[in-house]
Write a structure and sequence with these properties.
Blueprint lengths: L1 E6 L2 E6 L3 E5 L8 E4 L2 E6 L2 E4 L8 E11 L3 E7 L4 E7 L2 E11 L1
Length: 103
């Protein structure tokens, strides 16, 4: 069974046992998280699409860790002016493991 969930402004196609890196969640490591914004469910040949969400469909996941992505470097450069500004950014994320998908 596959599902498309929405969290952190993004959509993810998941199945049981998948490990995802999603936007930071306030939950503690080891806690169970439920995603109620399910956009689509696929079970065998049967596909159910929500308008926009599927009522009563829930995806449960376990929080594995909180960490940060690799650094992204940002460079602002002005030509012919001998001016360059370098910055870096590391986004926080939460790693979760999908444990159950229910209708």
């Amino acid at each position: 069974m596959h599902a498309v969930i929405k969290t952190g402004g993004k959509q993810y196609r998941v199945k049981e046992g998948d490990v995802l890196k999603i936007e930071l969640l306030p939950d503690e490591v080891g806690n169970e998280v439920t995603f109620s914004e399910v956009l689509m469910l696929t079970e065998g040949d049967k596909t159910t699409c929500g308008t926009p969400l599927i009522k009563k469909a829930v995806v449960k996941a376990e929080v594995l860790e909180h960490a940060r992505h690799k650094k992204v470097k940002i460079i602002k450069f002005r030509r012919r002016k001998h001016h360059m500004k370098q910055m870096g950014h590391r986004q926080y994320y939460t790693q979760v493991k999908i444990t159950a998908i229910s209708k």
